[in-house]
Design brief:
The protein is of the alpha+beta class. It has 4 helices and 11 strands, in the order E-E-E-E-E-E-H-H-E-E-E-E-H-H-E. Helices cover 32% and strands 29% of the residues.
Length: 188
C-alpha cells in the first residue's frame, strides 16, 4: 500500500507521498520521476492502492482540461461531468476494476483544488483542506491536523506538516517508507 498526504490552501495545494511499494513479498522503492504522484497535463494525480492505478493515471489517461475560470462550483461540475467519465473510461478500457468500481483511492489536484475520488468514482472535499489516504493515511491525517492546530496555513507550514506526517506514517505503518516526495500546484 502507500501513504499520500495533502493540504489545500487558498489557490494552492501540496501533495506528498512515500516511495515504498510492497507487492507480493517484494519491496520496491520508487524513483521521484515515476512515483505515486504524477503530473499529467494540468493535473497532479496520486493513487493509493494498486500501482496499476498510478500507471494508468500517468501513462494512459488523457484528462480533459477545465476552462481557466472553472473554480468553485464550476470546477466541481467539470470534475463530475468531464473528468470522472474520462477516468472511468480509461480504467474500463484497461480492464482495471470491476462492476463499475476501481480498486484505489485517488487524489486529483486541479486549479489548486483537491478532490478525493473513491472506488465508486465519487468525489469529496473536506472543509479542513487536509487529506490523507493509504495504509498509513490515518497516522498522516492525525499528525497533520495536530501540526496545523493554531498555525496559519502557509505553503511552508503545509510542506513541513506533510513531511512530518509521512515520516510518522513510515515509522508506524510497515507498508510506508523510503523517500518522501512533495509536489506543489499553484493557481492564480
Amino acid at each position: 500500500m502507500t501513504t499520500l498526504a495533502a493540504i489545500q490552501g487558498e489557490g494552492w495545494a501540496i501533495v506528498g507521498c512515500d516511495s515504498k511499494v510492497v507487492e507480493e513479498q517484494r519491496t520496491f522503492i520508487l524513483p521521484r520521476d515515476n512515483g505515486k504522484i504524477v503530473k499529467n497535463g494540468a493535473y497532479l494525480l496520486g493513487a493509493a492502492g494498486d500501482m496499476r492505478a498510478i500507471n494508468l493515471l500517468a501513462h494512459v489517461l488523457k484528462p480533459p482540461v477545465p476552462a481557466p475560470n472553472d473554480i468553485g462550483v464550476k470546477l466541481d461540475k467539470f470534475i463530475s461531468s468531464k473528468f470522472i467519465p474520462a477516468l472511468k473510461q480509461c480504467f474500463d478500457e484497461a480492464q482495471y476494476g470491476e462492476k463499475g468500481e476501481q480498486d484505489s483511492s485517488i487524489l486529483v489536484v486541479i486549479h489548486g483544488t483537491i478532490y478525493e475520488i473513491g472506488s465508486g468514482y465519487d468525489w469529496c472535499h473536506d472543509e479542513s483542506g487536509v487529506y490523507a489516504m493509504g495504509s498509513g493515511g490515518d497516522y498522516a491525517m492525525g499528525a497533520m491536523l495536530i501540526a496545523a492546530e493554531g498555525k496559519k496555513r502557509t505553503m511552508t507550514n503545509a510542506r513541513s506538516s506533510i513531511k512530518a506526517a509521512l515520516a510518522i506514517s513510515a515509522r508506524l505503518d510497515p507498508n510506508t517508507g523510503g523517500s518522501i516526495y512533495l509536489q506543489t500546484q499553484k493557481w492564480e
